[in-house]
Design brief:
Blueprint (H helix, E strand, L loop, with lengths): L1 E6 L4 H16 L3 E8 L4 H10 L2 E4 L2 H11 L4 E6 L2 E3 L3 H11 L5 E2 L5 H13 L8 E4 H6 L7 E2 L4 E3 L3
Parallel strand pairs: 1-2, 1-4, 2-3, 6-8
Antiparallel strand pairs: 4-7, 5-9, 6-7
Length: 162
């Protein structure tokens, strides 16, 4: 089962845009749970998380992914920032990755050549810190960093313009 850990570091409307894309995955049974990590303690974000059935956690940005992973119910996690919108067919791409590479993290890069290259370079050549767009086993997220560079998924994610 896949759990989305969403860092709500923007307005509630950005979180709503991300949830709108995730709802079909919940309906299909692919996404079983979501954890919203809110560094600001926004009441509107907490209400939105509660209304969608997601767990809500108030935590700073530095420990947010780790604490969100600790509350996740699934063995695999999808890390997103509020406002991230995976492109069409993201469910099939992630599902295929989980079937073929069950122990390797993957990256759903941002749309756009420059943004995608920056993300990929940061993960390939710099410290392999956790970031939005990763699909990884829960154990890797709890460890706080990736052991190897993630595989690149054939779908991208966009940022909602709000």
């Amino acid at each position: 089962m896949l759990t989305a850990v969403i860092r709500a570091d923007g307005p509630a409307s950005a979180l709503a845009a991300t949830f709108a894309v995730l709802i079909p995955a919940v309906a299909d049974g692919f996404l079983g749970h979501a954890v919203v990590v809110d560094p600001g303690g926004d009441a509107e974000i907490e209400h939105l998380a509660d209304a969608t059935g997601a767990s809500y956690l108030r935590a700073g940005a530095a420990e947010g992914w780790h604490l969100g992973a600790a509350q996740a119910r699934g063995d695999w996690l999808l890390l997103l920032s509020a406002g991230d919108i995976p492109q069409l067919n993201w469910i099939q791409a992630v599902e295929r990755h989980l079937m073929l590479a069950s122990d390797v993290a993957a990256l759903m890069p941002l749309r756009g050549v420059a943004a995608s290259l920056r993300e990929r370079a940061a993960l390939s050549f710099g410290p392999r810190r956790l970031r939005a767009g990763l699909v990884a086993p829960k154990a890797l997220i709890l460890a706080g960093r990736l052991n190897t560079a993630p595989r690149r998924l054939p779908v991208r994610r966009e940022r909602a313009e709000l």
